[in-house]
Description:
Layout: E1 2-5, E2 10-18, H1 22-30, H2 32-38, E3 46-53, E4 60-67, E5 73-84, E6 88-98, E7 104-106, E8 111-120, E9 123-133, H3 136-157
Antiparallel strand pairs: 1-2, 2-9, 3-4, 4-5, 5-6, 6-7, 6-8, 8-9
Helix pairs in contact: 1-2
Amino acid sequence: MASPQQGSEMHLRVRRVFAAPREKVYRAWVERAGLEQWMCRDVATHRVKYLELEVKTGGRYVMEVTDTATGEVYLGQGTFRQVSPPEKLVFTWAWKKRQSDGSDVSLEPETQVTVEFWERGSSTEVLLTHEFFKTEKAAKATEEGWKGCFDALALLVEKP
């Protein structure tokens, strides 16, 4: 379930229950091997590689997303503002597009993602809040992206 909210700045929420223990779901958000299997894999032709991943308050991440169909390269990056295992992550989120000359161009203003993890018996409820969008178009596109990412995350964490 997801819902963009309007105001001077927009936000969205995506809530989902995964049939997997909280520790396993949380690890998929903080370990490179897991992240590269589901993050930004909402498009089948996306290949994801983390160039930097320091999961701690004040730590940074940089991921390179290559669309194998078009050859386009995007860089997703940000800073962890809060890391509270296995309960909560808060991090900034910004996209750049790699140009043919090797330079990077910012695509949207920086936003913030909060991910909360709750035990629900042998399952885990995840609530993702993504906020500070400047346009409804950006919020809606990001909402669709997170839904696809959560589908890929389910395939990873719900397998035995």
